[in-house]
Amino acid sequence: MNIVVCVKQIPDPASPGALDATTYALKRDGKLILDESDAYGVEMALQLVATAGSGEVYVVSMAPNGETSGMRTALAMGAVKGLLVSDPALAGSDALTTAKVLAAAVNKLGGADLVITGTESSDGYTGTVPEQIAECLGLPSVTFAKKVKIEGSVLKVDRQSESGYDEVECTLPAVISVTAGVVEPRYPSFKGIMDAKKKPLDVVTATDLAVTPTGWAGAGQKIVNVTQAEARKAGQVIEDDGEAFGKIVAFLENLKLI
Amino acid sequence: MTINNVWVFAQASGGVATTGTLELLTKARSLSSKVTAFVGGDASAIAASLGEYGATKVYATGDLAGKLPGVALSAAMKSIIDSGDTPDVIMFPQNYEGRDTMARLSVKLNRTVLTNNIDIADSADGVVATTPIFGGNILVAAAFVGQGPHLVSFRPKSFAAEPAGASSPEVVAVAVPDLGKQGGAKVVAVHTEQSSGPKLDEAAIVVSGGRGLGEAGNYSLIEDLAKILKGAPGASRAIVDAGWVPYSYQVGQTGKVVKPSVYIAAGISGATQHMVGMKGSKNIIAINKDKEAPIFGIADLGIVGDVHKVLPKLIEALKSR
């Protein structure tokens, strides 16, 4: 059971985001960290391999600037090998190119029984890359998985739906996207962090993978305008003196809702 | 460019077209005189209402027999396009089925996608879609480059649904092609989480709780208040991820978009992820013990206080009326 987890390295969500003044792209020039929503996929992969009793977990990522610190976090959790596709020509890639690159990276690692992704990144949240990877690889897919187990060559997934969940069965190999909160991602141990520094992490270019890096020019979209949205103004803020609930009652009364 | 042919990814729930579908059709007919609704399923019950909101033609695949929509519907759409009906724009809802279908189709057609939009226009720059970023504070307008079909998805409630008048669109049956290995996933059982009261995204009053409630057991305060106000209970992503309430309660970027008359946020600090799902509410009341919480920046009435003290008193006061 070999599992490849696709991870994204993103600017720390705790610091405010900013757009580049000329390209309008999200600035990603500082230190990048493992997207928290990908930590769930890494954890799930480690658990599935442990249950299967054999196999390895690999991680792949794409970044224009050679950044690996987020991938090292995944290696510290227990993945054994990483492949980073880093190429300045990939800057400005759209989701479709990203999916083509990640699919090629999965193939470069010799394919996988299962490819795991998050449902959407926390910085760009386009939300289409998992299905696009599956289509590029010619595989079935189950998105929004909240519970996953493997019985023989069959994947059994509880898939989130608008009104509850569906039980889905799928042949392997396959691609799944996992929702946040499905498992509790482990904290890397000190030993894990030290080991991760020695684990193989290959860096290749798009050309090495025979993917044409289209970047800005071929992105299929261009930003034509960026404007400030009409801001919502703050109203009255009061400290609760034990009677503040009365203000809420009056507010609702005033709107004739009670 | 001139838009002459628009498709709308149409959905039904409980035998009626979803509000989101009618919103997209309303917008589509302002862009193009030719509007086609694509239905992944049986269209007989909803064709008239699709027509009433602007569809001049309906494609319907019939029952999917457990196939997952993304792979099956993208293949059906591709086969229609290959046979000569090429839309300029395909409008998708920003939900599970819409996202998956759009993503698969983008690879089949080798076209980019623009997601999470709230508006679309046909302009001198081409087809331009607008998406809010950074918690909705900044609007980014992006134009498609190159040839259509342009694949674009929209957040719920981006447009108001308005009927255009009765009409009976032509309904054309389309087959789902053989999916081969890619069709390896099948739905074997469907589970619906029951909830009483109004639906979260349609309720006039929404009461949501967050991490400030302290523990899962305190969520009953939210449910009690919602019940008294005949509203719907909601939640922040933090407590959904923590397993206190099901995902269907989640309000925010990755959950439901709500625009009630009153939104009451209790113990929610106001992460960007949450705010984009509720800042369109007509009135916002926030209760949080941290007076620096971002939620107070958009609240019409902010109470700096302990939810464990304010909520029980509020519930008592409303009960005794």
> Secondary-structure element order of chain B, as H and E?
EEEHEHEHEHEEEEEEEEHEHEHEEH
Mean pLDDT of chain B, rounded to whole units? Answer: 94
Cα-to-Cα separation, first versus last residue of chain B:
60 Å
Number of helices of chain B: 8
Residue fraction in strands of chain A: 25-35%
Mean pLDDT of chain A: 91
Question: Oligomer, anyone?
Answer: heterodimer
Structural classification of chain B: alpha/beta
Please give the alpha-carbon distance between the first and last residues of chain A. 59 Å
Q: Greatest interface and its residue counts?
A: A-B, 78 and 91 residues
What is the molecular shape of chain A? Answer: globular
> What are the secondary-structure elements of chain A, in order, as H or E?
EEEHEHEHEHEEEEHEEEH
Q: What would you say about this model in short?
A:
The complex is a heterodimer of chains A (258) and B (321). Chain A has 258 residues and is of the alpha/beta class. Chain A has six helices and 13 strands.
Overview of this protein structure:
The complex is a heterodimer of chains A (258) and B (321). The mean pLDDT of chain A is 91. With 258 residues, chain A is of the alpha/beta class. Chain A has helices spanning 36-52, 69-77, 95-108, 129-137, 190-196, 245-254; strands at residues 3-6, 9-11, 32-34, 57-63, 81-86, 114-118, 141-151, 154-160, 164-171, 174-178, 201-204, 221-228, 236-239. The longest helix of chain A is centred in the first third of the chain and has 17 residues, at 36-52. Chain B has 321 residues and is an alpha/beta fold. Chain B has helices at residues 19-31, 47-52, 69-82, 96-109, 219-228, 237-241, 272-275, 307-319; strands spanning 6-10, 12-13, 16-17, 35-39, 57-60, 89-93, 113-117, 119-123, 126-133, 138-144, 150-154, 170-173, 185-192, 205-209, 232-235, 262-266, 283-288, 301-304. In chain B, the strands form four sheets. In chain B, strands 7-11-6-1-4-5-12 form a seven-stranded parallel sheet, sandwiched between helices. In chain B, strands 15-14-16-17-18 form a five-stranded parallel sheet. In chain B, a hairpin with a 2-residue loop joins β8 (119-123) and β9 (126-133). Chain B starts with 5 loop residues before the first strand and ends with a helix. The relative contact order of chain B is 0.11. At the A-B interface, α3, α4, β7, β9 and β12 of A face α3, α4, β7, β9 and β10 of B.
